[in-house]
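Hi U.,

Before I forget, here's the chain from the pilot set. I'm dumping it here mostly so it's searchable later in email.
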Amino acid sequence: MRFQPQIYLKHRWNSTGGYREILTLAVPLILSTSAWSIQHFVDRLFLTWHSPEAIAASMPSGLLNFTIMCLFLGTVSYINTFVAQYHGAKQPQHIGPSIWQGIYISIIGAATLLVLRSFAEEIFTLIGHGGLVYAYEVVYFKVLTLGTFPALATAAFSSFFSGRGQTWPLVWINMSATAVNIVLDYALIFGHWGLPAMGVRGAALATVLSAWSAFTLYLLLIYRKKYRDKYKILSGWRFDPALFTRILRYGLPNGIQFFLDIAGFTTFLMIMGRLGTTSMAATNIAFNINNLAFMPMLGIGIAVSVKVGNYLGDNNPDLAARSAYSGFHITFLFMATFAVLYVFAPGIFIRAFGAKSNPQEFETLREIIRILLRFVAVYSLFDALNLIFSNAIKGAGDTRFVMVMIFGLSLFLFVIPSYIALAVLKTNLYVGWVIATIYISSLGIGFYLRFRGGKWRAMRVIECPAPCLPSVYLDTPTPD
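Structure:
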């Protein structure tokens, strides 16, 4: 029989685990992660208008803060998988206690960042950026650490909604927090409406206040009566050693993986900073533009992780596999569209950064960014593999493999080659970007091959009243 695309697409759209099911869950998550992407884009945009030193300092400093926080954020965020599998297994009484264990991890994470805050000067002295860039890095980092607890606790609260497929609350809360951030950015960076012009300190303060606003909204929403009894939102507050240990068993490798991944990019940026302010600023802007495509698709990745968790909780790995492939098809199409724009219409993305910058200073940046976006176009296609299939296997509980793979590739394919090429051999930033492209592409291929291997099909992160074995075994999931 001749292949008929319209019939295939109709079937794939309407079937269980198909495009419509993924998009129904993912659209609110896409809007939610897009709001976060817009927040960071505007933050970097305003700092570019402020000065080259401000934008050069904000990303490595912000990434260092985020890198350290990621160890805890990745652990707390993995509660999403616990909620998804408990929800799929019809065990709602375990969901509230899981959220509370995440709050305890958030407290530990916040305390860690506050201790490191005291050593900010020493940390950035070791990194080796001088002058205004160094001063801005220290200020930005110190202020950002004050928002660690609400950022981590918000990840635990959001897991309660996303893991059960109730994703619209995330949209309204993240959009509200983004609005708070943008308004305060404009006021505090440049000094409007009677407020002082605080530059990078104002940008960091806006981020912190935005995080606390999101935390407050989640707190008001999650403790409503309709959630308290069914999910034990209040009565499950006690520390549960067994549950806490299980969350650490699966979540900590996810946190370490998250930490290593971001640490690799942070180290790359620190090394890139040794090439000068222009190379650093161009790299920061190119990564920021890339986030416009990457962050919305993170919503698809979360949706895939949730559906894999739901279907495995219900002992149906075939539908879990179909959901993953549906998410990949959508993500690849989106990334490919942006890749074409990066190559053939880069001015769409670059223009905003130069709008209020010094024309002479920005002209040099413009041409460098245009070239860097070609690298982004190439690795974006492989990033679709990375984003979807890493989330799919993590949704099953295969977090240790992800951690080991990130560690190996980040160290031996990214950090060490970047240091040798840029710091020792003194090559240019384009060599560094070739290394980054190879690294991201390798991640995507590796996670896809792991998913194809099918080991994730027999994995579960929750305790089960009945044997947790899939009803159907297949060595390799099919695209269906």
